[in-house]
Design brief:
The protein has 561 residues and is mostly beta strands. 13% of the residues lie in helices and 40% in strands.
């Protein structure tokens, strides 16, 4: 089962710009001699790149993110090198990748870029600069899209006074980079991930899995012709990008009457969502039925035609069934006689739902990509308990409780000091991480080195908040943060591909320290990062999307050095 890398990894890389998650050396190691082939070459199949390791540097690789570090390190400022690559769900250009990184970087500045070619691939090279607890940081970053959906980033950081020794190491590694097509991640039956280049894969779902699929067949009450505007044009993924009359969508014989189209799907599911892509004169759907495996029809939605300005339009129907009902067909009824705006053309219909237990099916790589079978993870078992609120020590006091009560997309700038119970200062930053960015306000939180950064829009509404990396209260020490509990969480993750925040917080018996939270505008998701700490400094972390830990690097366990 393919698990494409997403912007989650880009976010983790940006968060790591001032903390590389493990010890980074404060002295430069010997640079390999590329011309004499000294140094070991490393290949990342999932990342789609290779390079020659730096002699004497510690080495770590996790899901396409590579860290090379030297001994006797500081965790916050380096120097050290990080490399990342792999497949993404969306297509990007080099400029898109740059803007994505800039939008996430709150404590580091990415300078002016220079077009640079590595192994024949065009990319962007830029200087990095910042300040961590009074220590000036310097570095460089190279980023490139090897293909529209395969990204690559190589970054180095060090204290400014050590950059002269670190820069040649970065340049040598960059010069050794070679690119190739990244292998997609697939899941084996035990839930582990591996890369796979085979043309055909088989998924066996011992427990229900949430999948997304497009119709494989379609039959209409009428169709404009047997080829153009035929019922078959509504099968597969959407292929009409603009509003207008288009032969790649289904249209009925008449533009002023009633009609219907039936979509057939390969995999029976208990539905949670139906997405109807209408490419011309939308909002004339009056009823949507689902057909179970016994042929019985159930009304999923009904309504009246209503004029809307959005076109093309995505009509989403959400289903919350009390008991599983397995279906493999959807019937859509339209009435074009009410609005009389013309043909209501339907481009595609996506069915989202949970598979049956012990269900197996085969698919080719091409089919799996078009059906996007694993774009959304299966829901983990939830015990129904709310997240714990047993804040203690410093986290129970007014400042952190104020931090918790800063609500993204709700809290207004005029209320910040009142809610935080301390006075903040306005940042002197002059760059805009997003077009409607107005200001960032900084609060000294209390624990050593901990500062809060709260960003607001031009409308005076908070859109992002974050804490200084690698800072946490000294009295936040949990006996539940153990390797055994991490292994239990990891087992849930491998089984379900997702962990609700409530499940993780209850297992660790703490709400956790909220490190960062922001609203992602491209898909309207709330992103939250939490950490839980053990008395010895071990850390379990979670990256949550709308309250669900997901993504290739969503769950982390970092032992204390």
């Amino acid at each position: 089962m393919k698990k494409p890398l997403t912007s989650v990894l880009t976010l983790i890389l940006i968060l790591a710009l001032v903390s590389l998650s493990c010890s980074l050396g404060n002295t430069a190691s010997k640079i390999f001699d590329k011309d004499n082939n000294s140094g070991e070459e490393y290949f990342s199949e999932s990342g789609g790149f290779s390079f020659i390791k730096v002699e004497g540097y510690d080495f770590n690789d996790s899901f396409g993110i590579v860290e090379m570090t030297a001994p006797n390190a500081t965790t916050e400022t380096g120097p050290g090198i990080m490399v990342m690559g792999g497949l993404m769900e969306q297509e990007l250009t080099n400029d898109d990748l740059l803007e994505s990184m800039k939008s996430q970087a709150s404590t580091i500045d990415i300078g002016k870029t220079k077009k640079t070619k590595v192994d024949g691939v065009n990319g962007l090279l830029a200087d990095l600069s910042g300040d961590y607890n009074g220590i000036k940081i310097k570095g460089q970053i190279f980023m490139a899209m090897y293909s529209p959906k395969q990204q690559f980033v190589l970054m180095a950081l060090s204290p400014e006074d050590q950059w002269k020794e670190t820069e040649p190491v970065f340049e040598a590694v960059l010069d050794s980079v070679k690119f190739f097509e990244a292998a997609p991640f697939v899941s084996s039956n035990d839930g582990s991930f591996e890369s796979d280049d085979s043309e055909t894969n088989t998924l066996i779902a011992s427990e229900p899995q949430l999948i997304r699929q497009w119709a494989s067949e379609a039959y209409a009450e009428s169709e404009y012709s047997s080829t153009d505007w035929a019922a078959s044009q509504a099968t597969g993924a959407p292929d009409v990008d603009t509003c207008g009359d288009n032969a790649n969508a289904w249209a009925s014989t008449s533009s002023i009457g009633t009609d219907s189209i039936e979509l057939v799907y390969d995999i029976p599911v208990s539905p949670t969502e139906i997405n109807i892509y209408q490419s011309y004169n939308p909002s004339q759907v009056v009823e949507v039925d689902i057909i179970d495996l016994n042929g019985e029809a159930w009304i999923a939605w009904s309504g009246e035609p209503e004029y809307i300005e959005t076109c093309p339009d995505l009509m989403t129907i959400t289903l919350e069934l009390d008991e599983p009902l397995y279906i493999d067909r959807v019937v859509i009824y339209i009435d074009q006689s009410v609005l009389q705006t013309g043909y209501n053309e339907i481009d595609a219909v996506e069915l989202v739902g949970y598979t049956m237990e012990e269900q197996s099916y085969s698919y080719t790589n091409e089919e799996e990509e078009s059906n996007d079978l694993v774009d959304e993870p299966a829901a983990a078992v939830d015990d129904g308990q709310p997240a714990p609120t047993n804040y203690s020590g410093w986290m129970a006091d007014s400042v952190y409780q104020g931090w918790i009560n800063i609500i993204i997309n709700e809290t207004k700038v005029k209320d910040l000091d009142k809610i935080m119970t301390i006075k903040g200062t306005k940042s002197t930053e002059n760059w805009k991480p997003r077009p409607d960015h107005a200001d960032t306000f900084i609060y000294e939180m209390g624990p050593a080195g901990m500062r809060a950064f709260i960003s607001v829009t031009t409308d005076g509404i908070v859109y992002k908040k974050s804490l200084s990396p690698n800072t946490f209260p000294a009295d936040f020490k949990l006996s539940t943060v153990t390797k055994a509990n991490y292994d239990e969480l990891d087992a849930i993750y491998k089984r379900d591909y997702v962990i609700p925040y409530t499940v993780m917080a209850n297992l660790l018996e703490s709400p956790g320290l909220l490190i960062e939270q922001y609203f992602r505008t491209d898909d309207e998701k709330m992103i939250s990062s939490y950490n839980w700490y053990a008395p010895n400094g071990d850390k379990i972390g979670g990256y949550f999307i709308d309250g669900l830990l997901t993504g290739m690097a969503g769950l982390v366990y970092i032992p204390a050095e």
